[in-house]
Write a structure and sequence with these properties.
Number of helices: 4
Radius of gyration: 25 Å
Strand content: 25-35%
Helix content: 10-25%
Strand order of the largest sheet: 2-7-8-11-12-15
Length: 259
Amino acid sequence: MVKPLAFKGDKKTKKRKLAPSGDDSQVEKSPRDSPPDAQEDDSWVTADTPGDINGPIVIVLRSTTPSCLACDAGGKVFVSELENMVEDSPTTAEPHDMRQVWIASRIAGTDNLGLKGHHGRYLSCDNVGTFSAGTEAMSPDETFTFLAAPDTLSTFNIQTQRKKFIAVDASGKDVRGDAESISFNTAVQIRMQARFKPKLKASKELKAKGKISRTELEEAVGRKLDENEVRKLKKARVEGDYHEALLLIKVKGKHDKYS
């Protein structure tokens, strides 16, 4: 389920867990003490491949003034100027308006995506290349294919099911879906939330697996551990053979006890 989006400048409220009353051995745990959960990462990153694209995205257009594809509550699709950037670089863009965000969802068994606006309706392109966002269900008009640009990294061309391309016009004020071929004006970049990017998500989950305290490991083994044993068990958690390593160390401890 997609969580509410957070924007730059928003104050984040963090829940704090208090120790049960009467238990002096536990103290209030600060959020700083816990590693950031990959599922909670609401920072924005650039999609590198079509397979990355999922969840909330911003479609950054190739225009003179950094801008993106947006829609209003009535389903009108328009070009919206971007404001949240580092040194005016579109590659660092983040949305400042919910209308700039689309929820990308992959259609099972295909490479196609549906794009749902902030108002719960899908982006659609008709047979003459006109965009709207007023449809509650997907049909071929509401499905798009993101093709990696052959000569530019982290850049895409969005193709409709009529084999036409999304393109911004020379003025950068209008966007249509009837370009016959790939060009400078059809190129887009996709900004997305980090928690939905497969490589980042996998990397953070891998790091989280290795985060276990010495006390927890010693409780699992049933005795005190030396530094080498702690390192072995932490490494095994990351590599996926933790239970085998745990058993070996338990058996070794029994042998040492009776030797």
